[in-house]
Amino acid sequence: MEPSWYRPSVTAVRYLLGAQYLVSGLGWWIPVMPFPNAWNWTEFPQKHPVAGEMIATGWMYQLAKVIEVFAGLSLLSNMFVPLMLVVSFAVALNTFLLDAMIGRTVSEWFAGRASFGVLRAKILDAIYFGGAVLAMQGYLMLAYLHVYKPMMARKVDIQMP
User: Fold this and answer.
1) pLDDT score for 34
2) What pLDDT sits at residue 136?
3) Which residues contact 28 (CB under 8 A, 6 or more apart)?
4) What is the pLDDT of residue 138?
5) CA dist., res. 33 & res. 60, Å (int)
6) Residue 92: C-alpha distances to residues 113, 138, 161 (Å)
7) What is the 3-state secondary structure (H, E, C) of the chain?
8) Contact criterion met (CB below 8 Å) for 131 and 99
9) ∠151-85-27 over CA atoms, to 5°?
10) How many Cα atoms sit within 13 Å of 7 on the Cβ side?
11) Greatest CA span in the chain, whole angstroms?
12) pLDDT value at position 37?
């Protein structure tokens, strides 16, 4: 028997993650936050050189943003949620990994070349945009584990549809 708080918490996390994905994804084409966007991505500092290289490919970063938009719409509408959680997992994991790479900023802060504000912004970015997104993603994937279990069979015979 599940606790009384479980379903409301899954719904709340689904809405939070859906809103995060939708705003982040749409923010690439509709600049609403001071982040890189399709129109002037070179004017903003990159989280990591890898992000800049993804943008420079002309398709890789845009694909991640398309996945975020579709995942956000899916989570907010409660349609195809388990599928979109699997599809968006690579984006969530890579976002976390890029946001967690703050070692250079920490070193620069200790050396006096970066302000505390820059360090604080990097830490908050790593916690919220990276860590919280990955934590919400993992929480929802655990909530839908019953849907994924049949796919985790060690060996399955094929059948005619």
Assistant:
1) 67
2) 96
3) 36, 37, 38, 61, 62, 65
4) 96
5) 21
6) 30, 10, 33
7) CCCCCHHHHHHHHHHHHHHHHHHHHHCCCCCCCCCCCCCCHHHCCCCCHHHHHHHHCCCHHHHHHHHHHHHHHHHHHCCCHHHHHHHHHHHHHHHHHHHHCCHHHHHHHHCCCCCHHHHHHHHHHHHHHHHHHHHHHHHHHHHCHHHHHHHHCCCCCCCCC
8) yes
9) 160
10) 3
11) 66
12) 64
Cβ proximity of 10 and 143 under 8 Å: yes
Tokens representing 60? 């890789």
Q: Which residue has the tokens 């002037």?
A: 40
Residue closest to 142 by CA, chosen among 5, 13, 19: 13
Q: Pull the structure tokens for residue 74.
A: 């899916």
Pair 106, 119: CB distance under 8 Å = yes
Q: Residue 125: which residues within 8 A CB-CB, separation 6 or more?
A: 47, 99
pTM, two decimal places = 0.81
Token pair for 153: 């069979």
